[in-house]
Amino acid sequence: MLNVSQKIADEFGSKRGLLRFLVFGIKNSFGHYKKATKVDLRDVRRLVFICSGNICRSPFGEEVSKVNDFEAVSYGLHCRGGDPAFEKTLHFSKELGYDLHAHRSQHISNYEPKTNDLLVVMEPAHLLELERLFPESKKVLIGILSSQRTVYLHDPYNTNDYFFLKCLRSIEIATKKLITQVGNQK
């Protein structure tokens, strides 16, 4: 039988991940993120995946999108740029059928908005930063489209293998669902 700490690590990534999941979930239940969970997808032509370091979540979302023939790019809010995908990202993305070996991180300052972009955000803290940087851009919290239907998708960087793979699977499911929804709006 798994102990409580192991269950938390497997389901939420860490104790901090559990706390953020709960806090952001409560805020969401009061409609705090409604604008980023109910998005008009008409005219979306490119998905712009954004996370902290652009070495785990956002490059994986970008690759899933591209493999499914939908234009995409990814950026990090807190990265220097030029770094390859994290080793675990490379390993688990390959296990899921994706190749991220060519990926190099890009800082958000290199982002040039296009009219038909949709900013695909991993967590509410990133959403707040992006609201300041790009207030007119459409934004969606990707976790709301995952099987967990959450507004917070914890950074898997320092998590165990079980959670890391679970996180990438959530991004894969949500990205495919988003592409289908965008296609249904055309």
From TrEMBL:
It comes from the Bacteria. Keywords: Hydrolase, Protein phosphatase. Residues 45-181 form the Phosphotyrosine protein phosphatase I domain. Its EC number is 3.1.3.48. InterPro entries: LMW_PTPase, Ptyr_pPase, Ptyr_pPase_sf, Tyr_phospatase_low_mol_wt. SMART domains: LMWPc (SM00226). Coiled coil: none annotated. It is an enzyme of class 3 (hydrolase). Belongs to the low molecular weight phosphotyrosine protein phosphatase family. This is protein-tyrosine-phosphatase. The lineage of its organism: Bacteria, Pseudomonadati, Pseudomonadota, Gammaproteobacteria, Alteromonadales.
